[in-house]
Amino acid sequence: MAKFAVTPANVAQREAWTGGTIPDVERVRPGLWSIPVPIPINPLRYVLVYVLELPDGVAIIDAGWNTDEAYDALVAGLGVAGYAITHVKGVLVTHIHPDHYGLAGRIREMSGAWIALHPADARLVRERYDDDAIDSLVERERALLRRCGVPPLTLDELAGASMMIRHMVSMAKPDLLVEDGDRLGLPGWDLRAIWTPGHSPGHLCFVSPSRRVLFSGDHVLARITPIVAVHPQSGPNPLADYLDSLAAVRKLEVDEVLPAHEYRFLELAERVDTVMAHHDERLAEIERVVGELDGVDCWTVATRLTWSRPWETIQPFMRRSANNETLAHLAWLEAKGRVRRVVGEPDLWYPA
Fold it and tell me: Cα separation of 214 and 201, whole Å?
């Protein structure tokens, strides 16, 4: 299937993305601003924080990493819009990954803003970011990777690969829990939450029916697809959750999608169809590899797949993501009866 190229809502923003630069702070439309907040040492480069004007201040969707550079960029961007950090009344967090949740606690300390999360992600905060709990999560990751067939010499490096970015998060429990379908009650905004699990168990999108816009977080992006992986904090079949969530947002009648990365774009349904087709192709590729090798571990399958760059050049953290994303596709195929698993260390996968 040919890839559908979405129409950028702002050509300059797309050119910044494709040119490897940071886009400008932008007044998207009356009462709504976009602020790019830099992400250190990451190919995504920035997260787009959206500022919603209220009668007595602003609410923001997502926050950025907890670094001085990110905080200063957010403060400067708010200044362009005519606000200070103390004007932030609330932080709507799409999900608890560091580039979305990391600064939320620092913003609350400076402004008294409330922090909102979906309960499924709120339950994960302590184990993921509390120093007293993280060792247990690393051990669970190590056990998962061992069952995937990760070589012993690589196991420790991959199990602790995310430890280097934990300091990018200011651990903050949410003040509000937002469920699927909740109306946010922001004056001047008819914002409704849509629970879209997959990339994280509690990922949220926000739609404004009157303004016909969707704040899509990482759920639907203009060019790339979010990582959907089995890991110790995921459900057993996150790809099924993700594909169901895609089908749910595809039905929305919106004119514009405002994602957390890359650039704003127009065609939601067409982009969803392209992402679904991508996963169909990946599932077929994985099923073919399992059929060719007949009794193969997940790690070996991952090394045989087509990635955006050669396997040997992929950094350890992304190799772990690639392995766990492969496992998510295997779990989906298993649930559909297209492959079968023989449990062990490692688990072995066979044609059904």
Answer: 19
pLDDT digits (tens, 9 = 90+) for 251-282: 999 999 999 999 999 999 999 999 999 999 99
Distance CA 138, CA 136 (A): 5
Q: Which residue stretches of 186-313 are H helix?
A: 238-250, 268-293, 298-303
Give the pairing of strands 88-92 and 114-117.
Answer: parallel
The answer to whether 33 and 51 have CB atoms below 8 angstroms apart is yes
Report yes or no: 4 and 274 within 8 Å, Cβ to Cβ: yes
Half-sphere exposure of 315 (CA within 13 A, CB side): 7
CB 58 within 8 A of CB 111: no
| CA atoms of 125 and 114, how far apart (whole Å) | 16
Query: What is the DSSP code string of 241-269?
Result: HHHHHHHHHHT---SEEEESSS--BS-HH
pTM of the entire predicted model: 0.95
Alpha-carbon distance of 197 to 180, in angstroms, equals 11
Count of Cβ atoms closer than 10 Å to residue 167 Cβ: 13
CA distance 238 to 228: 7
